[in-house]
Amino acid sequence: MARRAMTTPFVARERQIAQLMGALERASAGRPGVILLGADAGVGKTRLLHRAAGLAARSGATVVTGHCVDLGEIGLPYLPFAEALGQLWTVGGDVVERVVAGRPALGRLLPSTPADEPVDVEDGANRLQLFDGIGAALAAAGRPGAPLMIVIEDLHWADSSSRDVLRFLVARMRDEHVLLVASYRTDEMHRRHPLRPMIGEMARHPNVELLELPPFTDDELRTFTTAVLGSPLPEPALRRVAERSEGNAYFAEELLEAGADTEALPGTLGDVLRARLELLDPAVQRLAQLASVAGRRVSEPLLRAVVAADHTDPSTDGHVGPVPDAAERFDVALRDAVAHHVLVGEDGRIVFRHALLAEAVYADLLPGEQVALHRRYAAVLSADPSLGPASRLALHALRGHDLPAALRASATAARDAAQVLAPAEELRHLETVLQVWDAVPHAADELGQDRIDVLTAAAGAASRAGEVARAVLLSREAVTAAAGDPHRQAPLRTALARHLMGEERVHDALEETAQALTVLRDDRPSGDRAWALATHARAALNLDRDDEAASAATAAIEVARAAAAAGAEADALTTLAVLVVDDAEHAADLLEKARDRAREAGDIVTELRCTYNLIATRYYAGDLAAAAELVTAGARRAAAAGLTWSVFGVELRVFGELIRYMHGDLSAPRRAADPAPEGAAASLTSVELYAAVARGDTDAVARGRALRPAWHRDGQIALISGGATVDALAWQGDLDDAVELAVELIDYLGRVWSDYFLGGIWIAALAISALADGAQVDRLVGRSAAAKVALGSELLSRAVTTAEKGRPRGGRLGPEGLAWLARAHAEHSRLLGVNDPSLWAQATEAFEYGYRYEETRSRWRWAQALLEAGDRDVATAHAQIALSAATAMGAGPLTAAILALARRGRLDLPGARAPAVDTLTGREAEVLALVAQGLTNRQIGEQLYISGKTVSVHISNVLTKLGASGRTEAVAIAHRRGLLATEAR
Questions:
Q1: Is 811 exposed, middle or buried (0-12, 13-18, 19+ CB in 10 A)?
Q2: Dist. CA 944–CA 921, nearest whole Å
């Protein structure tokens, strides 16, 4: 049916309209943007978007709208973008068809393209082409002066693949004439909602704006109610509406519709909705009930078919059977529902005027009625599959307790999701199959596969979706289920081992492959045996059992070639390449050959493993540029194949963030990523702490400490988050805490990994630096620094021994390890009170291989050492270089430290002019004296009977007056100027 314009009056919201129109104007000029519109249900998001869309269309913009649908655990991939593209195809088919001609995968989302074309789930090019096609179609629809405005409603219901597309579009925005506006319910954003972290990440992107829509104020509500009724509402009634609606536009309107001029106002929105519906014709009520079972939106053909199949029309006085003139009755009831603002027509769909109305109508059905109506929908969809996808049939069959139908439809929906490379949705559908399996007699006959097959497929989907722990559980269940058939169980053990390695449970993985090989040892060459050997080799490699790894990998290659198992061959070749420790170029050459072999085999998981190891080889050799190129290509390949959150997909992202930081890009991640699974999120959060600490984010310590529970899951999370937290603590002057955490971290990873893990050199250098800062204060106030010197010397000795004994597999220590070792020696000289400029020169030069931030930080210390040695000219030159680099990077704490050094040493640097006033108040002097004793803000507050927040204000004033970058430097400056007594309080 034709789209019906909203008749509800639009009032207020001037600021929001101005922001939307401003963004549209920028898009018209080639500055694309995304606006995320958040508000509680009923506040007026849809009304605002309709208003903005109308203004945009009148200004010459093309406006299309896509909707997300609440299908519970049953996903419908790419729905809002498919809907929007369908509208573009209808109004400007030539534009879309030109894009489809160059990117055929896009045709899968258009209504005219057959949906049953076979697609290899591992073909990464298809997904990349699909995403690229969506972006190209949207970009082609916008022109200078006539931009495209795409509206996505109800983003909180978006499927994982649609969120992937949104992330892709934001990341690719450059100069397109496109504005994307997406609305979501803030009251749906519970702690684990997948959209919640995504919004936090997207908000950091320069092209993304957040737009909040608050409830009406009292004055705005007065204007609104007057517009709805045509005359002012009496003040007592207005106050009652305000109290009941709390400024929510929809609640207020419903109260007015129910009769705001009477004392019998409903006490809750549910009462209001029921009271309003009870006033309507029974046929309209029945239509609303039938529509509510589908959710807020339902296609007109589907609803018409369900109504035609309805055998319970209250207007027929008990008539049972097909209702005469059903089509005519449907039209009459629909017109009446639209006239009474219950339903509206929108782009061929029947839509509840508000989502809460649909929910209230559905909730008012008795449980038995709900089940019966879901069954009716399922029957209609089964009879005519063109009325909806298999995922919708699965939803209604499940809620209608028709478990055999739910089983079949969920299996079909899983295949559909796999076909469009949507592993998260595939997993959910397969888990529905497993959920109902035992309740369906002869389930294996229904599907043509047994439960073990489904478990194996679900484990694979879980792994591709990044749900590694879930993959392990499903895979282990498959192994257990095959206990009576050792030969079938053997390859399942190999698959389990691969999933276990994703959780770093390498010993368990090795045990599984050993058991598999026991069964397969005497078999003729087969793919199963080749994979068991290759996986065993990989596990042995991870446990540093190099001889065993080499033997198993060599055997795997021989068996794989005999059995034509190219994927297993590539995996084993990768292991042999990693075992090459003394020739980075030779190792890289072998890895490239292994990657090519994996690509030929169509084994993208093994290809990503090869890419990851290629990146690691280039990174640890100090070739950051080559590593960055590999990261970009590999991440694109992973995303295109739906493997963004797979084990190696995540590792590529971690490397990408690390290299970006090392190059001096300290900005927050520009990606607007789909929320990562728990393990992946912890890995990414930890690596992002590097830049957060360098930027000076005030919550860096809290973010680092929040990752402490994840240490046991992945030692790399412990190393990176722990080390970054040590650094953050030292920057904010919590030196004792920094040292304590560093010692704890070294001890923990020494037990988990080995006594001489290479990351220990970095942690030792950071700890020695914190000890040196503390020793400086000790000497200034007359305390002994002997304990700090002793601990620092012990840490330096450990770092030196680690460099000798912990070199990777007997190879040479790479540039980063050598640089941190040089840094540890330089920091130790500062700890001893010597601060040797030559050691700082060596540290600075060691980081010049591409580690821009640490090169700059070492240069700052070099300038400090030169100044203390009396070489002011050279100190000024290095301080100037460091200041320029730190400022360009946005390294806040480091910039402040360099400026403080310049002020203290009277170096002629821009922005280094000393404050005109540095006299401390009595209270500030008291606070600083307690800081010198090493007390925390809380402890100082207890001593002086003031709050910790007040202490923080006093310390900020002290730092400003003294031109200091931190607490340690403030103590030193104050002591040198005679502002601080040396005796303890």
A1: middle
A2: 14
Please write the tens of the pLDDT for every residue from 952-961: 888 888 888 8
CA angle 342, 348, 349 (to 5 degrees): 40
Distances (CA, A) of 98 to 32, 89, 140, 175, 558: 22, 11, 9, 20, 48
| 208 φ/ψ angles, rounded to the nearest 5 degrees | -110, 135
Query: Strand 208-212 relative to strand 33-39: parallel, antiparallel, unpaired?
Result: parallel
Q: Are 221 and 75 in contact (CB under 8 A)?
A: no
Other beta carbons less than 10 A from residue 834's beta carbon: 12
**Distance between CA 539 and CA 805 in Å, rounded?**
22
- Token pair of 415 as six digits: 């295949």
Write the CB contacts of 955 (distance below 8 Å, at least 6 apart in sequence): 927, 928, 931, 937, 967, 970
pLDDT in tens, 237-288: 887 777 767 788 877 887 787 666 654 434 456 665 666 677 788 888 999 9
Q: What is the mean pLDDT of residues 654-673?
A: 85
C-alpha–C-alpha distance, residues 376 and 765, integer Å: 69
CB-count exposure of residue 274 (10 Å: 0-12, 13-18, 19+) = middle
More confident call, 761 vs 926: 761
pLDDT at 980: 64
Q: What is the DSSP letter of 40?
A: -
State which amino acid sits at residue 385: P
Q: How is residue 373 written in tokens?
A: 């109506």
- Sheet containing 208-212, strands listed edge to edge, beginning at the edge strand earlier in sequence: 62-67, 148-153, 178-185, 33-39, 208-212
* Structure token digits, residue 883: 């200041």
CA distances from 640 to 109, 128, 312, 635, 655 (A): 16, 4, 49, 9, 18
Q: What percent of the chain lies above the pLDDT cut of 90?
A: 55
CB 963 within 8 A of CB 771: no
375 within 8 A of 400, measured Cβ to Cβ = yes
How far apart are the C-alpha atoms of 99 and 668, rounded to whole Å?
Answer: 33
- Residue where the block lists tokens 């790479």: 814
Q: In this structure, what token pair is assigned to residue 951?
A: 């202490």
How are beta strands 148-153 and 178-185 bridged, if at all?
A: parallel
SS3 443: helix
Structure tokens given for 330 = 């449907």
